Amino acid sequence: MNAPNTPSASPLALPEAIRDLNRVCADVGLSMMACPNPEDPGHEATLGAVDQATVRRLTDLLHISMQRTYDAVSALRSALEAHGLKTPELGVRAGEIVLGDLSLSDAVRLAELLGVPRWEPTDSLEVELADWFQSQVVVDRLGRAFREATGGFLDLLFHHGCHRCGRSPAIATGAFPVGTALRLLDALDFGNSQ
User: Fold this and answer.
1) pLDDT digits (tens, 9 = 90+) for 107-164
2) 96, 178 in Cβ contact below 8 A?
3) Which of 20, 41, 137, 192 is 20 to 30 A away from residue 169, measured at CA?
């Protein structure tokens, strides 16, 4: 899964970050003051008491800053549904977009929509993919199709039914940046429509 960017851990990093946060809070009108944590001043900061109006304003600002991401999720949901794909877990995690678990048939279909040749398993997809090797074929096909269509990476992991408490096998997807999501939308809108 994609790791967030973390600033360097220099001794001055936290005081600089606190100054930056306090300046930005003042700039946007938030009555909030970050201070070094007295128990661990070089590594942690506290925000102190924050009133209801400040919490609401901070929430609004975060929503505004995330609007492009939320819009991408909404557009992806519509595009995937238009192609008959079910992604009930589609959402945002740590500022990036995640499709959630895909059924095996939806993973095969998504790969085809992104341009890999149609694949016709000889048996039922659910039965044939109970085998790890066959499931890896689907994972590889979807990973390759995603990379070729978006230029981005999609972390994929096959979960056999027994690992999901008796639920159907699925392919778990990792998070990807908004820019990659927008390229995925373009590929779904203008790509292969088999």
Assistant:
1) 999 999 999 888 776 555 554 555 667 788 889 999 999 999 999 999 999 877 555 4
2) yes
3) 192
E-strand ranges in 64-137 read: 91-93, 96-98, 102-103
Give me 139's structure tokens: 């994972």
The predicted-structure confidence for 52-106, as pLDDT tens digits, reads as follows 999 999 999 999 999 999 999 999 999 999 999 999 999 999 999 999 999 888 9
> Where in the chain are the domains?
13-50, 66-190
User: What is the b/e burial string over 151-178, where b = at least 16 CB atoms within 10 angstroms of the residue's CB?
Assistant: eeebebebeeeeeeeeeebbbbbebbbb
Q: What is the pTM of this model?
A: 0.77
| Residues found in the chain | 194
Nearest-5° Cα angle at 56, 50 to 61: 110
Token couple for 74: 């909404």
